[in-house]
Design a protein that fits this description.
The protein is α/β, with parallel strands linked by helices. The protein is about 30% helix and about 15% strand. The structure holds ligand MGD (2 copies), iron/sulfur cluster and molybdenum atom.
């Protein structure tokens, strides 16, 4: 009986609730869903635990955890942090719901069904490790180490990756962060000014912030967003180049609603205008530039009018952008971008961005590109052994690089093609660790065929995902809230006048539950079983972290005592390195048979009736990895497709209509989503958030929610210089009640 309660009992429960509310978070209580399978044990006194480092995405904000007994009840930014400060984003907050997700992997599992249609049987760690060790060894014995491949991502994947690369000796690892994300950017900037650019733009001090296909506010990295907002508050003008009215476009002074795939033409026209009107930083170019004459000559045909036609935007707008940049140079933040694997012609666009930064003199100046100087820490890992031949798929028969500007590792497509053809050699063993290659890599069916032909597939993850369905053995890892792992460093040079550096190391905020294990344990136990006992570099993950910290004269105990973060004095970040130069024309690129001056390579246009499929981030999810998170699912349960309002009117569609997709290859989406009509997207494109539409029924919250964009990206393009994927060359029509609806291009 609801009211049959004594006054004393009522007061007791009311005061408990009052304590519980702020700690367990309003969302949990409002939704009435408590996913925590256990009540706290031990002291009910709330405590603050320091040393957390978030990994709900890869920005790694510094955290403190509020614990009650043995339970973690809330996450906050570490107030000592000079990076994110006490702020964390929605995803960071929701880490608790990953920690206690009842669907999380708990025990080692063996697939006694089929790959792709698994039946899971719980097995002991002993049996799981024996099986992984012996199966990987069998592949190695039969095909050589090159018969093994790996799809890694995230902080814990480095240690096993180094075991595979350096000790076992396979070159066939393909990191998502390189081949589907930012590898092109890093290589293009290295080929232009000698360094990977990170996202090191001094936005707080910028007079203009220039974003090309990046969209802050949807793409969220806490400290970066803080810097961006600080810049805008300080009066920076904002230029946003995006076919879609993004969260950044909504804050912009100039929104360039560019035709997708034409950005390089746009950049070349800006640069040609600056050069021909003498509006560039001639002194800077004279001092640091190489190959400027070839560059000038190479881009001279790019008039504003020519680019305007190509990019489907007014010539006057290109001029306006160029003039705004020139008038505020050198204090301009030309953002290098992050996810830049767009069209398979992306190296040239990234080179253009690096050259534009040079033309404006915007390297190592206030408001420009400023990398900051990080403290030195160790990099303990497996040692490189001698191997017979590299078996590098990226070398042809004449030992020349196929993709000379490939980021480290092997281009994904080379691994997949070798696996499917057996040429130049078979690839028969696969380790998937912290990556979801089914939803991350274009060509989903191809990926499935690659995994299907393996002798053995093992997967280490925290959740059951679409990729884990393809494993023979599936191992549960402890999450970032329950483990030691990386040492993280950074600087805070651009918030204040005082320059500071920080060093932190991820420490557990709470003890692991069930039978989850960490990366050092798992890797070492497999290595032992493969006969590499003697090569094991550290026995525990704590030992690894202590070794790395010792290089900076620090220990975990000291870090803990200092509130989880060690601060030290930084160095002036604006000092130009001595040998700095900008290769406007790069002879090596030309010698390798590619354009040495940034060049526009047009992309394929879609057939009539189809629109280009674009995708991107939403603030409350990270790719596919947060789809089963109950708080984040509640915040954005599916991914509506953005459809130009006039096109929608012609198609007879309105907001909320349920639709599916069919692409240019006749591939249909497995699930549906709803329409969002808006003038904020070009009529030649549709847009949806990436990472939805999971097929794994063990994700009780995320399964079948929204549409999987990757399933529609079946046409595979590869950037010729780097071997990284392009993903935006696919075109779709909508489907409704079994009927296919053309998308009109002209509205
Ligand atoms: N279509 C399309 N494809 C894309 C993109 C896109 O926008 N659209 N974006 C690209 C970009 S920029 C990137 S960076 C990549 C990202 O690609 P992925 O890194 O593959 O992305 P996630 O979906 O986060 O998958 C990571 C996997 O790691 C697991 N995981 C999470 N935490 C841990 C952990 O602590 N340990 C272990 N072992 N596993 C863990 C997750 O459960 C999930 O299965 O995707 C790229 N691919
Ligand atoms: N909330 C959240 N934040 C994240 C992540 C996350 O998963 N969730 N992931 C992190 C990671 S690893 C990465 S790499 C970054 C990615 O973040 P971004 O680098 O910002 O990349 P996307 O999210 O892919 O952004 C796609 C944008 O490009 C636009 N676009 C599409 N085609 C074109 C074109 O041809 N030209 C131009 N100019 N624009 C185009 C789209 O409309 C969209 O606005 O986000 C990071 N931040
Ligand atoms: S940006 Fe958000 S999800 Fe990413 S590390 Fe920071 S708090 Fe975590
Ligand atoms: Mo990324």
């Amino acid at each position: 009986m609801a009211f049959n309660i004594t006054r004393r009992k009522f007061l007791q429960s009311a005061s408990l609730a009052a304590v519980a509310l702020p700690l367990s978070g309003a969302l949990a209580s409002e939704s009435g869903i408590t996913r925590s399978p256990l009540e706290p044990k031990g002291s009910l006194q709330d405590e603050t635990v320091v040393g957390g480092v978030c990994e709900m995405c890869f920005w790694r904000c510094q955290l403190v955890g509020k614990t009650r007994g043995d339970r973690l009840v809330k996450l906050e930014g570490n107030p000592k942090s000079i990076d994110n400060g006490s702020a964390i984003c929605a995803r960071g907050n929701a880490g608790i719901q990953l920690l206690y997700d009842p669907d999380r992997l708990k025990y080692p599992l063996k697939n006694v069904g089929e790959r792709g249609k698994p039946k899971w049987k719980r097995i002991s760690w002993e049996e799981a490790l024996d099986e992984c060790g012996s199966k990987l060894k069998a592949v190695q014995d039969k095909y050589g180490p090159q018969g093994l491949c790996m799809f890694p991502h995230g902080s814990t994947a480095k240690y096993p990756m180094h075991f595979m690369e350096r000790t076992l000796g396979t070159h066939n690892v393909s990191e998502a962060s390189f081949f589907q994300c930012r590898g092109i950017r890093d290589m293009a900037y290295m080929a232009t000014m000698g360094m990977p650019p990170g996202e090191f733009v001094d936005m707080p001090n910028a007079k203009v912030i220039f974003l090309l296909g990046g969209h802050f506010g949807e793409n969220i990295h806490v400290s970066h967003i803080k810097q961006y907002i600080q810049g805008l508050q300080n009066g920076a003008k904002l230029i946003v180049v995006d076919p879609r009215y993004s969260a950044s476009a909504a804050k912009s002074d100039i929104w360039v609603k560019i035709k997708p795939g034409t950005d390089t033409a746009f950049l070349l026209a800006i640069m040609n205008y600056l050069v021909s009107k003498n509006k560039y930083d001639a002194e800077f170019v004279e001092e640091y530039g190489q190959g400027f004459d070839e560059f000038k000559e190479g881009i001279k045909d790019w008039s504003l009018e020519k680019a305007a036609k190509e990019c489907d935007i007014p010539a006057a707008q290109i001029k306006e952008v160029a003039d705004m940049l020139a008038a505020n140079a050198p204090n301009v933040s030309i953002h290098p971008g992050r996810h830049v694997s767009w069209y398979g012609n992306d190296f040239q666009r990234q080179r253009s961005l690096a050259c534009l930064t040079g033309l404006l003199g915007a390297y190592f100046v206030k408001g420009g590109w400023v990398p900051g100087k990080e403290p030195k820490v160790g990099k303990t890992s497996w040692a490189k052994k001698e191997h017979d031949g590299e078996h590098n798929l990226n070398l042809n028969a004449d030992e020349e690089s196929i993709y000379p500007y490939s980021p480290p590792g092997t281009p994904t497509e080379l691994i997949r093609d070798a696996a499917l053809t057996g040429k130049p050699y078979p690839i028969k063993g696969c380790v998937i660790w912290g990556q979801n290659p089914i939803q991350t890599i274009p060509g989903q069916e191809k990926m499935k065929e690659v995994l299907q032909q393996m002798d053995f597939v093992m997967c280490v993850d925290v959740m059951p995902t679409d990729a884990t369905m393809w494993a023979d053995i599936l191992l549960p890892e402890v999450s970032y809230l329950e483990r030691h792992d990386l040492v993280k460093t950074g600087t805070q040079w651009n918030f204040a006048d005082k320059h500071q550096q920080y060093i932190t190391a991820r420490m557990p905020l709470v003890a692991p539950m069930f039978e989850r294990k960490d990366q050092v344990y798992i890797t070492n136990e497999i290595a032992r079983r493969m006969g590499y006992e003697k090569d094991i570099p550290v026995q525990t993950v704590e030992e690894l972290v202590e070794k790395d910290l010792s290089v900076a004269n620090l220990t975990l105990a000291q870090l803990k005592q200092e509130g989880g973060i060690h601060l030290r004095e930084g160095k002036d970040p604006y000092q130009m390195p001595e040998d700095f130069e900008i290769l406007f024309f790069n002879e090596d690129i030309a010698d390798a048979g590619f354009p040495g001056v940034p060049t526009y390579i047009p992309v394929e246009q879609g057939p009539a009736g189809y629109a280009r499929l674009l995708y991107g981030r939403v603030p409350v999810h990270t790719f596919n990895r947060t789809q089963n998170n109950i708080w984040l699912n509640k915040a954005m349960p599916d991914n509506p497709v953005w459809l130009n309002d006039q096109a929608a009117a012609k198609m007879g569609l309105k907001d909320g209509d349920v639709v599916g997709f069919i692409n240019q290859d006749g591939i249909k989406s497995r699930t549906t989503t709803v329409v969002k009509t808006t003038p904020g997207i070009r009529a030649d494109s549709v847009y949806m958030a990436h990472g939805y539409g999971s097929a794994n029924p063990l994700m009780s919250v995320g399964v079948d929610a929204g549409v999987d964009d990757t399933s529609l990206i079946t046409k595979i393009t590869v950037d010729p210089e780097t071997g990284a994927h392009g993903m935006r060359n696919n075109f779709v029509k909508l489907t409704r009640d079994g009927k296919i609806i053309d998308i009109p291009a002209a509205v």
